[in-house]
Specification:
Elements: H1 2-22, H2 28-46, E1 56-59, E2 67-72, E3 76-82, E4 89-97, H3 107-125, H4 132-147, E5 152-156, E6 159-166, E7 169-172
Antiparallel strand pairs: 1-2, 2-3, 3-4, 4-7, 5-6, 6-7
Helix pairs in contact: 2-3, 2-4, 3-4
Length: about 170
């Protein structure tokens, strides 16, 4: 009987461990930490003085506890969907839209550039690289592929990245 209780306890422990490992991806807090590190990196290397943006929170409306974190700006829109229990990121959509009447050096151009750098910092936060320098390679990969006019797809850790361009809008999912 004692052996059966021990084996049952061992089996329950194994199942609990396996279930915990079933949740994959980054926690929202981990994403925010990396995002802040990336903002500092970009500020240092591009002579910027940006602060991390603060997403608002709303219920996904599905009745299962999922939540969205969102940023809605003039040129940048961010939508992060979190799973209900552990605040693991299920999906992240960044949309960057360039204004049609933008001229280089104008205030609109500067605002758009800031939004672009913010989108870089968020994109980098999804990369598994240890340092912001390591994570920045993803930005250069995306920029190179977008210059070809093609969509970009890449596996990034447990996430699949798809970047597409339509007119003056780039969507990173």
């Amino acid at each position: 009987m004692r052996k059966l209780v021990f084996l049952t306890a061992l089996l329950l422990l194994f199942c609990a461990s396996a279930c915990a490992e079933g949740v994959t991806g980054y926690s929202y807090d981990f994403f925010l930490e990396r995002y802040a590190e990336n903002i500092d990196f970009i500020n240092d290397n591009a002579g910027r003085m940006m602060l991390p943006l603060v997403p608002s929170k709303r219920d996904a409306g599905w009745g299962d506890g999922r939540e969205y974190r969102e940023i809605t700006g003039e040129w940048l829109t961010v939508e992060i969907l979190l799973e209900p229990v552990n605040d693991i990121i299920e999906s992240c959509r960044l949309t960057l839209a360039a204004p049609a009447d933008m001229t280089y050096g104008s205030s609109i151009h500067r605002d758009f550039s800031t939004s672009g750098y913010q989108s870089y910092a968020m994109l980098m936060a999804m990369d598994p690289g240890e340092t912001p320098y390591d994570r920045y390679h993803l930005v250069t990969d995306v920029e190179s592929w977008l210059a070809t006019g093609n969509d970009f797809q890449k596996q990034i850790g447990v996430y699949s990245l798809h970047v597409s361009r339509s007119g003056n809008m780039v969507t990173m999912l």
